[in-house]
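Handout, section B. The chain below has 360 residues.
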Amino acid sequence: MKTKIALFSALILSMQAFSQSNKNIHSEMDVYTKKIDSIILSEKMKMNIELDQLDKDFNGKSSAEEKQKRKAEIAERYQNILNEKIENEKGSLEDSTKEMVRNIILNPDKRYSLGIDPQSGLLGIFNKRVKLPKDYLHSVRLTASFVSPSLTSEDKPFGFYNKDSDVKRASNNLSAYATLRYENQLGKFTSPVFYRLGLGLRTDYFTPENNKVFAQDGKNLFLQDFAKGQLKKTLIYNTYITIPLELRWVLNPKYVDYEGVKYLDNRKTQFYLIGGFYSGIRTRSAIYNKYSTDYTKKIVERERVMVGVNNFIAGAKIGVGYGGVALFIQKDFTPTFNNDALLNNKYGIQIGLELVSVNF
């Protein structure tokens, strides 16, 4: 027993000395030594319980020689148990170390470490992919934007504050836009240009001017006065599934060298320009009215829009950003509302602020 403990102590000391230059090995040996300590403590507690029970059973009933003989048998049994368990851990350590060395040679881009399997309680090898500079040049990201929409006429495509508009100014309307997009570098590893392809969900909300409400009669969509009670809130909303295709141009590129290759360092905070096109299919449109009467304080009505709204939109987007925040303008080339809508302005335009993003 003493010989095995000495051998293992020497092994641990030599491995700990080597670990001064290798944090991974140091961590692995910490796991191993803690496991050995746990085994010794557990078996020692079991042995002490048996010895205490032996003292009670032999109290004045047998000779001291018989009692000492039984203690020696118990000690020898637990010594064999410890030897067997430590031998198993030693074999597990050797196998895991060999596996680690093999994987390091075959897969140099992965970081390997030893740990305890929570199910078996045995030492095991675990690996984690180490991201290289090239890995940061592509990503999958979910973004959320807050958008202020408005409607313009065909002859005044950027007339945000057109007095003839049937809906309130852009500052009175708020829309939401969420996009799951894939981004990758375009060109060489030092290129500052990236392309983006995504799938989005866009909802535009429009509030009529002059306390009017949207209405429909089966042939036309139009505005009319509200006569059911005291109007609290009214709007029409259109929801689209969109497919955006964009380019992002980094204005202040920084670079990093790795194994003799120069990469654009996409981990740095960047100023950039964005521009691209999008298309979308309408999935839902509805009229929303909330009002009160002399008998009821809150009545909410929702009516599905059946006429007056186009099923397809397409447009362009430009913007500027810094880090995870971007300010953009996007303009629909196709009208939101068709000829069945008796409205002055029918083309959508949005000013948006991208604030929230989550990487996958």
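Note. Residues 8 and 24 are 20 Å apart (CA to CA). Compare this with the example in section A.
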